[in-house]
């Protein structure tokens, strides 16, 4: 039996691969996509989501438009890694969507999808956690309908947008703290410590582009992002952060998780947005979060390639 899946996203190059992975995986049924500000403006993330679903032949999946800003404080700035349009300046190479966003906003769409579901739903937030915080605050009675949150975000050993904070958590620390610390929904956190280790090479991308027209179009969205990660990684490759989180949602246990107590720094100092992980073994742990700390890296890359290589077209 397939697992119903909702992706909450701010596309984003790695978001594009993540959505494609969900569409290509028979273990899950992609029942909804919700958009949030993040890598680029909400207008662009929504347009990108609609175009990606059109490319993947999944115009049937409703797209709910979500938060355009954080819960409390203004968003300092958008990401530059994904280019001006979020897709390295190549969003125009995707087909125009045949429909617009759903008439329901992101929270309403998620609420109705959860209410209608006849089995637990996995939600994969791969952008700032604003929409998820709003959903859980407004509709706490629906938490039993959520099988698991698989969240891409945070850095155990440091950040990427600051020395200590990863972009998704830093974009709305208050929302991140509500979801990761204050709520009681089963949650697996996929931090950038692991997703960077799962980076793919430029040759991997070149080989993937040869498998189908759809895959070639997806790889064609990567130039700006790839150039950014060449600097970050020190070699010719790029991280596919969000696709790693979707891989865990599709195949639970493909990543190795360890439970740790966590907090999110919501102060206004240099650590704002940082994930605080208590790795001391001797402390009492009344509440922990499953954090993915390891994986069979080559096996994971092979899984991603196999699935994305079977996209139609």
TrEMBL record:
Pfam families: IU_nuc_hydro. It comes from the Bacteria. GO terms for molecular function: purine nucleosidase activity. It is an enzyme of class 3 (hydrolase). One of its GO terms (cellular component) is cytosol. Its EC number is 3.2.-.-. InterPro entries: Inosine/uridine_hydrolase_dom, IUNH, Ribo_hydro-like. Residues 5-300 form the Inosine/uridine-preferring nucleoside hydrolase domain. Keywords: Glycosidase, Hydrolase. One of its GO terms (biological process) is purine nucleoside catabolic process. SUPFAM superfamilies: Nucleoside hydrolase (SSF53590). The keyword rRNA processing does not apply. PANTHER family: INOSINE-URIDINE PREFERRING NUCLEOSIDE HYDROLASE, URIDINE NUCLEOSIDASE. This is Pyrimidine-specific ribonucleoside hydrolase.
